[in-house]
């Protein structure tokens, strides 16, 4: 087999491959399980693998790079236009071959393990922040139902709600007051976890020259700096946090 290019449509457990020759003609298709996929490249002469930059793509790109195979990750939003027929795994794999030939599509840089871990921290923080906000809004709504106005602002709002629930003469009925206090405890726990995560991000920033440079720019703070480094900078494991 002298094929030079392989397009891979990734999935959780089954991978669709379209193998092309040096003229970009599809000469073989394969539908492989994860284990078969890992074995498939052992005895193949593959110069380039093309994948959509979707879930697990960066992991497989790093793995293929480790085998000495070049990988091109294409932005997911541009692939659909190259699907010629109904959307299937085989059609998606063939579309990747067509899209890879387009000069106006800029590939996505393969992220390091450290970059993906840093992005994961940001996503976890966003989830916690969203949960915290929804809990505060729920408590505001409960208080409003009993004629109690809560000031705007997350911090001032939760402090005011805590005072209301602690007041024996509050208009909030006993039936809901105990459960509402538990919701306040959830919010405090989330705030503690968010603070701990932000301390971890601060430690990461201290060990990253790129973050230090970004933080020196007026208007750029910890979250923006670490998010930019996770998304765009090259990072290598040369420090305890694995950042450079």
Q: Determine the CATH superfamily of the largest domain.
A: YqgF/RNase H-like domain
Q: Report the top-level CATH class of the largest domain.
A: Alpha Beta
Please give the number of β-strands.
5
Helical segment count: 8
Q: What is the distance, rounded to the nearest whole angstrom, between the alpha carbons of the first and last residues?
A: 40 Å
Question: In a nutshell, what does this entry contain?
Answer:
The chain has 244 residues and is α/β, with parallel strands linked by helices.
Question: Could you outline the blueprint of secondary structure elements for this entry?
Answer:
Layout: E1 5-9, E2 14-20, E3 26-33, H1 34-40, E4 48-52, H2 57-66, E5 70-74, H3 89-100, H4 113-145, H5 154-166, H6 174-207, H7 209-215, H8 222-232
Parallel strand pairs: 1-4, 4-5
Antiparallel strand pairs: 1-2, 2-3
Helix pairs in contact: 4-5, 4-6, 4-8, 5-6, 6-7, 6-8, 7-8
